[in-house]
Structure formats: C-alpha cells, structure tokens
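Appendix B. Extra example for self-study. Work through it before the problem class; the solution is given directly after the inputs so you can check yourself.
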Amino acid sequence: MVKEQFKQIRKFVGTGFGLVFVASVTIAASSLIQYMYSARGLREEATKIAEGELKSNRLEIMNIIDLAQSAVKNNVSVAASLLDYPEYLLKIPSLLLAKNPDVAGSTLAFVPDCGIKVYDKAPYAFRDGEGNIQTISLDTESYDYTSKDWFIEGTKRLSGYWTEPYVDEGGGEFAMLTFSMPVKDKDGKTVAVLTADISLEWLTGVIGQVDGYPNAYSTLTSGAGIVMVSPIKSMEMKTHLSEVSKYVEDPENFSAMAEKMLAGESGSAVLKQKNGNIIVYYAPVERTGWIMGIVVPEKDIFKGLNKLKAIVATLQILGMLMILLILAYVAREQIRFKKVNDNKLKMEQDLHIASTIQMSMLPKTFPPFPDRHDIDMSASIVPAKEVGGDLYDFFIRDEKLYFCIGDVSGKGVPAALVMAMTRSMFRTVAAQHIPLKKIVETINDAMAQGNDVNMFVTFFYGILDMQTGEFQFCNAGHNAPLLLSDKIRVLPVESNIALGLFEGFEFKTQSTRLHYDDALFLYTDGVTEAENEQKELFGEKRMDAVLHTRRTAEEHLATMQKAISDFVGEAPQSDDITMLFIHYLGCREVSITFDNQIAQLEALPGFVEDACSKFGIEDKAAGINLALEEALANVMLYAYPEGTTGTVTLKARGMEGGMEFILSDEGKPFDPTAAPEADISMDVDERPIGGLGIFLVRQIMDSVSYEYRDGHNVLTMIINK
Amino acid sequence: MEVNIIKENGSTTVKLEGRLDTPAAIEVSKAIEPVLAPEIAGGVIILECQDMSYISSSGLRIFLTIRKASSAAGGKVIVRHISKDILQVFMMTGFLNLFQIEDAE
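Solution. Structure tokens for the complete assembly:
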C-alpha cells in the first residue's frame, strides 16, 4: 500500500514541473509564511522597493544631467567654430533652447576684453509663460554676470561645472541648477562661457511619487547639503541638511543619518515619530554629488499585516499561489531578459550591417580610374568600433573630378544617418551644374532645415578640372588639406562653418591651380588625433614625415595607416580614420613670364629644375637651363626698343619622350633660326666675340623652330630624353 | 658671382666663383678689365674655375675677350678645374681649341 503511493509520487515528480511544484509546496509552506508575513520580510520588501525607486530616480536625474551637459558640450564646439561670426554666436542660446526642451534657460556670456566684438556680452534665452523662447541681456549693471558662480567656475572647469541650486534673481527668476562650460578660441584662451539651466520645479516633477506606498515621498539634497526638494517647501533652497534636525521629532537619529548622507554613503535609517516611525532610504547621485532620499512611513509597509494574520488558514494556498506566481514571473523575466539580449544583439548586428552598407556606398575600387593617366588617387576609411560618421566620395564628370571628405559630429546611428545623407547630397547636388558656392550652400541649407539633433558635418568639397588643373574648393569647418608640391604645405583655406549649423550661411569658395605632379592629402582628425597608450597624439609631424617620400597614392595611404597603427599600439581606436590622396598628373605644363630685364633671369634655374624633375629629365637640366637662358636673353636684349617694357613667356610641357619649351614675346619679328651658324673652327684672332647664344640653343635642343603668329614671336624648342 | 684677381710670380690668377650667367656677366666683364692691360695680358693668366658652376654665352664672351687680349700681347691663358658641364659647353663651342685646359674634372 505504502509502496503503491510512493510509486505514484515518483511518477508525479518525474516531470520537471512536478518537481518544482512539490519542492515549492514543501519549502514554501514553511519558509514563505515566515518570509512574506513577518515584519522583517515586509521591511526587506520595502527596502527593495525603495532601492528600486532610488535607482530609477537616480537614472532619471542622470538622464537630465546628461541631456543638459551634452546640449552645452555640442554647442560649445559650435560656438568655437563661429567665433569669427558674432551675429551667429548670439543666436546660440536660443538655438540650444529650441533643440533641448528640457533646458529652461541658456546664456553665452563673454569674458570681458575677450576681443570678440558682439553687441550683447551675455544674451540669455529662456521660456516665457506660454513656452515661447525669449532673449534678454544679462549684461546689465544690476546683475553683473561676471561675479556669478556659474560664470567664474565655468571659465575654469574644462569639462564643465554644475552649480549648487540657486534662485537666479535678475536672471531667470526661478530655482535652478546651471551647467556651464568654457568656450575656447584657437589659441586655447577662454573667451566665453556657455550655460544650460535646469528648473528645479521641473526636476521635482520628474522624481515623482513612490509606487505602492501612498504616504511615501522623495527628497533631494545638493552636494553642499542644501535641501532642494522636500515636503516642507519653505526649506527648499535655503536650509542645510544638518539644520533640518531642528524641525523633526527624532533629531538624534536624524543627525546621525544626515552625517552619513553628507559623507556620500548609501543606506537607510529609522526615525521615531509619535504616530508611527518612518524609514529613510538614501543614496548619492553619481556625478552630481547630490543625495537622493526616499521617505516611507512604517504604517505603509505594515498596513496589511493584521489582516493577513486573521486568515492564517489560507496561508498555505496563498503561499503556493505566491510561489507559482514567482515561478511564472521568473520564467517570464527570463524570457524577457533573453528577448532584451536578443534585441540588443540584433541592434548591434543591424548597426554593423548599416555600417557595412554605408561603407559600401563609398567608392572602394582602387585605382578608381585605371584608364586615366592624369590621376592617381586612393581613399581609405578605417571605422572605429562604434559606427562613426566619417565619409569621403568622388567621381569624374565632364572631365572634372568632384571630391569630398567629411566628419559628422558625434557617433552612433544618428551620425551614420547624417553621413549617409551628406554623401547622397554630395552626389545629387553636384549633378545640377551649378557653381560650387551654390552646391555647398544647397547642402548646408538642406541639412540645417531638418537638423533637430544639432549635428553638424565638417566638410571639404573640391572640384578639379582635369585638363587645366584649375582647382576650386570650399572648406566648411574641416581641417585644411595638405598640398604636396615642391614642398608640403597646408592648403590655405577659409574656415567658413561646418555644414548643418545655420540655414542661409554664405560660404566662401576659393580656387587655385594644381600643376602636373602636385598632390592633395585630405584627412579627418582621426589621423592626427590617433592616440597611443601614453595618450600622446599621432600629430601633424608624424603625418608629414610619411608624405615626404614619393609613393603611389595607394602606398601613401597604406604607409600612413601602418604608421598610425604602429604608433597607436594596443590603444583602442576612438575615431574613424579617413584619408584621401589625389595625385594630379594632368596638364603637363608649367609656365613663367619675365619682363625684358636681364636681372629677372635669376628666376630661371629654379623654374628649370622644377620642370625637369616634374617631367623626369633631370640629367639634362644644366644644358636646358643654358639654352633657355640664351634664348630668353636674346629676346630681353633685342626684341623690344630700348627703354620700353615688354614681356616674354616661357612654357615648359612634358611630352612622350622629352620636353617642349615654347618662348613667346610681342617684340619685333625676329627669327633666330635664320641667324648664320657660328664657325667654331676659327682661330682665336678671327673669331667674333658674339653669336654664340643662338648657336648654343641649336646645339643643345634637338629641334628648334620659329613662327610669327598673331603678333607674337613663337620659338619652339624640343629636347629628347 | 665673385671675381678675385691675384698677381704672383709674373702670373695672374683670376678666381671665378658662382654662376657666370647673363646677369652676372655685366659685372664680371668690368671686374676683369685690369687683366686686359697689355702688361698683364702679356704674361700668364690662369682662370681658376674650381668654384664656377655654370657659364652662359655672355660668360664665354668674357673668356674670349681675355684670350684675344692675351694673344695680342703675346701671353698665355690657362683654364683650370672646369666642371664637366662647362667642359661640354667648351666642346660645343670649339673653346677647347682656343684655351689650354688643365685639370678638368
């Protein structure tokens, strides 16, 4: 009989659920009763709830802090790039407010005597009663912003500063906290402070109620101990935590607790009260130094205890139900947890795919124009771990090379999206046959219009005429490219501002001329700011060193990438590294113009040396120099009537197997090839002193021909390699 | 372009340093005028070209002027240490036959 029953039970527990069920019943029957319905259990429960509440409130606060901080940080870099444009600078506070609904007020306060000419030294933007953004000036005699804590500390703290809570009299007129950060000019001098105000009233609303305990409430104390949020409104912003003990029923325990709170500890304390004790749970809020408190009356915690005592008979059932619920909950949580993990994984995968797609949109085949001999170019992008926003792109249309490089502020999905948008606009707008200035302004306007997140792109746009070497460019706040000619120099660029900041900004475009064999190296700051483990930067010197050696475009980028990798070592890559190398090999022509003054011939050797090295005929440079000097001196001395000024132009052109030199002037027609040959066999007494110049030209050059065309003497000389 | 004229033991050394191009030739032709006087041109004139890197036709004219003056006064001109490039110019122009060349590189 007993054996039979035992068998049945074994059968029952054979299933997983049965096992859990039986275990639950037996264990829960005893321990749960004790756990759930003992005061201790309830208190633990309360602790858990309070801790959860503390944690979520802290996260909420951190979120607000982060929002305000990043709003200021983003706009500080915007301000720094706009220092030359005061009229835009003054708009930054209202712009910051418009794009950050949680920020109550903002000012850009200039350091007196900072040298920037603005008509308002401290424009302050805030929201009026109807939520509209208004701007007033804080630069008034009664306010004296330079004496305020947010200004003084804001000029000094590089990574920003949170003020203690205060009521801004004469400014915002409400209880607030202010985050401020310095704006520095190119030389690193602090020229202004940018701030964001968080309204305390609004913060209180965010912290909110404590779930489950109707009489519980939250408190907030500043790092310096000033009560910021309290049920006793009269204490807010005035009273120090240590003084609160005067107003409570259990000053002794309160003081002990206040001490721990101010020391940055977290924990709980019981305060004795006539009509029931209260429990205070407290914890510091990371980064702000604030102290968060949750106050729960014991009444709230134990309210159900007596009732439950009365129905002890149903405890078993309740206990069982409880454990089943917990099991169901645990199972659900586990499924949810797995889902969350899956979601996270999926998102990471999506990001990776997005980044791959994004990268694959950029031209990737090098050399990109294998059939062309007038260009050698290469580009590379090494993305940082997180999806970034670097881009480059290029194409040739109508014998013009359109190219760009850019760096989107920020990282992650938004940056990647802006990058993709910029790149597609680069292509579509360029297709419209409009001037460069218009192209860049069209892209800027389009980006500024839809830009709710205050993102911007530093951007360099270039158009290179493959036939003439005419090079137009517009630099929108990007680092200036390097121009590799006879030496390496920084292409002198107007800085303008980054794309996407202000609709209607008028961009300045520039132009210069690339010569045969000139090269451009464009890069993003991921190159110069690559950091090794000692926190040193790769820097411009190391970059220049790589470029000093002559290499193909592809080799240049590979060598640079290797130099960066070697330098960085094991340190993680923090930013995308993007480079574009364009070696111009078209328009194999250089020219120089002289006045008819012999002294100007001093410029000839340098010109000849350059031209010969460009066209690979260095070994004949000395002879070429001599022949050209003779031909030029001949024109300078005889083509123009004495006392008049005239010019002579020399063009040097590389061609298959040699070089061609064309000399042209507007002097009187004279054919030097018609001069009689010098007789070099004559004896010293018979030899005429002159007549050797033209003779030397003919000796050195492989072919010399003369033509009088359109009022010009044109002497064409060819030398073979 | 620098020109130094040194007289010693009956011979005159003209040291030429730099590029003897068209702009330089104007000054140099003035600087060597004393050498053309018969009492000097009649002796031995050494044109020291160790540090002369280049010569144009106007430089050659100066050489020829000195050579002619020497010939008229019954003297002798020696050209010393000319570079390979200049030697080529001398060959092209037949100057090799007009001058006594010593220690060309």
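Self-check: DSSP finds four helices and five strands in chain B. If your reasoning did not lead you there, revisit section 3.
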